[in-house]
Amino acid sequence: MTMATINLLMGIDAIFFTLGVALGALVYVREGLHTQGGMRRWNHLRVAVLSVIAWGGALTVGQDFAQAHNPVLLAEPADVVSLIAVAVYALAAIAILTAGAIYWRRALRSLAAA
Question: Which of 16, 36, 48, 112 shows its CA 20 to 30 Å from the CA of 9?
Answer without folding.
Answer: 48
